[in-house]
């Protein structure tokens, strides 16, 4: 299906992409349990996503991408997560990183895609070490954890602290692009949620990174990157990173909850209770408590989806109108991302709590979605306590403390 030579005008619209995702969803869902047990997304899933052009959705047209706005990727990732949250977490991030790489200088983008147009990048966002400045670039050593999808990637975005160019003794965070040949993977991923993401640890030992493979946090969180100038014909590349990337993470929880609702309805609508004490031989669907749980889950998923997509579309509209994305805009985006995850957790909890003994089986998709949604909520960028207080500070006239 994929045609990297197609001009932007020939790119598939969201209807076509939605149809492609629906075509591969059954095979992704069939492998969800084994994906979890394997602790990584299988190559078959990555190949299926590549064949439908998933990794081209927000990739720049200069390198064969479709250059869609980020809401398209997030909407599709919600659909993908219904089948397997781990695959959506990795697939969504690898696709989102195509957009992030587009912020680097052109020569760095060519390093990634000229020799391998299908190249993908994982990432570790916490500045895990200080880079040592040397002639022509930097040297990196250390351990970069939570590198989701590292088994499926050819590059990594490793965050590090670099010496400040303006303040002596000060350091500033940046992403450095590192090829997979320059690091080894330490399998440290043994968790109860998002188990199939393979979010392992990258180990670098005195690796040289050319200076052009650097993107500062200050540039990407403001949207004022070298790549934004290179791809100036499409303002989507000028949107601040934290208004976009975390929405892709949040979509995994929303999609997992939406999938849990579908699976719950399929099982519960025909289920007959077997308990001798409460509801013997009665239809589960007849219980008002069950009906209420379904309504709560459906409303929570619907609200979460709408908030995520609304904020993304608002940011895109702002930048296309030639207006700057304000601090308030950025924090509203962060609020919506974290709250949508809180809603997804609420939805999955409402359903999982009433699955009974059958819901304890590890192959049951409802309990997996519950664990996966909760795992998304543990991510610092998705933690409602951390992000919610940041919005509260803004609303109360205080200086927001956090990442936005």
TrEMBL record:
GO CC annotation: cytoplasm
Name of the protein in question: Monooxygenase
Record bears the keyword Phosphoprotein: no
Domain of life: Bacteria
Segment forming the signal sequence: none
Matching PANTHER family: FLAVIN-DEPENDENT MONOOXYGENASE, OXYGENASE SUBUNIT HSAA (PTHR48083:SF19), MEDIUM-CHAIN SPECIFIC ACYL-COA DEHYDROGENASE, MITOCHONDRIAL-RELATED (PTHR48083)
Species this protein is from: Bradyrhizobium retamae
GO molecular function: acyl-CoA dehydrogenase activity; flavin adenine dinucleotide binding; oxidoreductase activity, acting on paired donors, with incorporation or reduction of molecular oxygen, reduced flavin or flavoprotein as one donor, and incorporation of one atom of oxygen
GO-annotated biological processes: fatty acid beta-oxidation using acyl-CoA dehydrogenase
Domain called Acyl-CoA dehydrogenase C-terminal: residue spans: 248-384
Pfam families: Acyl-CoA_dh_2
Keyword terms of this UniProt record: Monooxygenase, Oxidoreductase
């Amino acid at each position: 299906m994929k045609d990297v030579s197609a001009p932007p005008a020939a790119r598939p619209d969201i209807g076509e992409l939605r149809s492609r995702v629906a075509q591969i969803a059954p095979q992704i869902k069939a492998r969800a349990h084994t994906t979890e047990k394997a602790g990584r997304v299988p190559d078959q899933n990555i190949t299926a996503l590549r064949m439908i052009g998933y990794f081209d959705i927000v990739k720049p047209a200069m390198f064969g991408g479709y250059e869609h706005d980020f809401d398209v990727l997030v909407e599709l990732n919600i659909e993908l997560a219904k089948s397997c949250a781990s695959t959506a977490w990795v697939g969504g991030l690898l696709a989102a990183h195509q957009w992030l790489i587009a912020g680097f200088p052109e020569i760095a983008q060519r390093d990634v895609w000229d020799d391998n147009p299908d190249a993908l990048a994982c990432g570790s966002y916490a500045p895990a070490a200080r880079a040592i400045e040397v002639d022509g670039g930097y040297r990196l050593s250390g351990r970069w954890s939570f590198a989701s999808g590292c088994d499926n990637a050819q590059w990594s975005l490793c965050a590090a602290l670099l010496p400040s160019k303006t303040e002596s003794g000060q350091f500033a965070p940046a992403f450095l692009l590192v090829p997979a040949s320059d690091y080894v993977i330490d399998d440290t991923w043994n968790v109860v949620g998002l188990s199939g993401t393979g979010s392992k640890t990258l180990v670098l030992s005195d690796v040289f990174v050319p200076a052009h493979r650097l993107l500062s946090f200050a540039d990407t969180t403001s949207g004022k990157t070298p790549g934004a100038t290179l791809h100036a014909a499409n303002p989507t590349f000028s949107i601040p990173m934290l208004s976009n990337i975390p929405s892709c993470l949040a979509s995994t929880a929303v999609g997992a909850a939406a999938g849990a609702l579908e699976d719950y309805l399929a099982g519960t609508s025909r289920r007959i209770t077997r308990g001798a004490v409460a509801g013997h031989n009665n239809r589960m669907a007849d219980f008002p408590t069950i009906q209420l749980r379904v309504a709560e889950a459906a409303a929570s998923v619907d609200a979460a989806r709408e908030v995520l997509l609304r904020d993304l579309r608002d940011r895109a509209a702002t930048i296309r109108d030639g207006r700057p994305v304000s601090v308030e805009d950025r924090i509203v985006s962060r609020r919506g991302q974290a709250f949508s995850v809180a809603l997804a957790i609420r939805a999955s909890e409402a359903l999982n709590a009433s699955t009974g003994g059958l819901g304890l089986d590890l192959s049951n998709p409802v309990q997996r979605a519950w664990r996966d949604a909760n795992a998304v909520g543990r991510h610092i960028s998705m933690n409602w306590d951390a992000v919610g207080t940041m919005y509260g500070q803004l609303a109360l006239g205080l200086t927001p403390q956090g990442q936005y």
